[in-house]
Specification:
- With 210 residues, the protein is mainly alpha-helical.
- The protein folds into two domains: 100 residues; 70 residues, Winged helix-like DNA-binding domain superfamily/Winged helix DNA-binding domain (Arc Repressor Mutant, subunit A, Orthogonal Bundle).
- Helices cover 59% and strands 7% of the residues.
- It has nine helices and three strands.
- It has a three-stranded antiparallel β-sheet.
Amino acid sequence: MSAHFLEALASNELGPEEALSEIRRFFDEGNAGEEVYSALVAGVWQSLTARKFGTESRAWHDLFRQVSSLYRAHERLDLAERMRVLSDLAMASTRFGETNGKTALLSRAYVLDILTAVIELGGEGAKREKVRELTGVGEANLSRILGTLESAGLLTRKRVGKEVTLGITAEGRAAATGKRVPPRDPDPSPDDAIRPDFEHLEIHPDFWRQ
């Protein structure tokens, strides 16, 4: 069972919620060695740096922090600190991916036109059909773009009877007007009172295998 779980973790077969549940069970069975850390480095971290997780990235970052706390509770301070560093690097990767992903999205045809149209129609309760008329986007293309913008947190969609209305989010308005919205920081955990400065941190490749 343990070997299968570690293999699944290392090959990214588990989502963050399921992975955390299995990791907790693994620790409860008295396993507080390096196996979990190594599996996370082998699988999840590579996918994060390759930016393959999308909206799950922050959930994985939270998992890293919780695993760090588990190691600390089992008095494995060395592994707790290494997980802590992994957590910070994961958040940096997540923010980079979010910023660059939205930059690429905004460069697509009609995206800025749609955001601007929603703002011009009041920013909230904008009728979908009116947005289509203002932008000249085809029906099928509009549905696809609106779904992408909603997933990216730039627009909201609401059905009122048989009609769909659109709303602009703070991030969507900022994207359309070129103003920057401060990044959302995760809620601090109890052991986050003192946080190291990683701005100029250089990590030797052998660090992960110590």
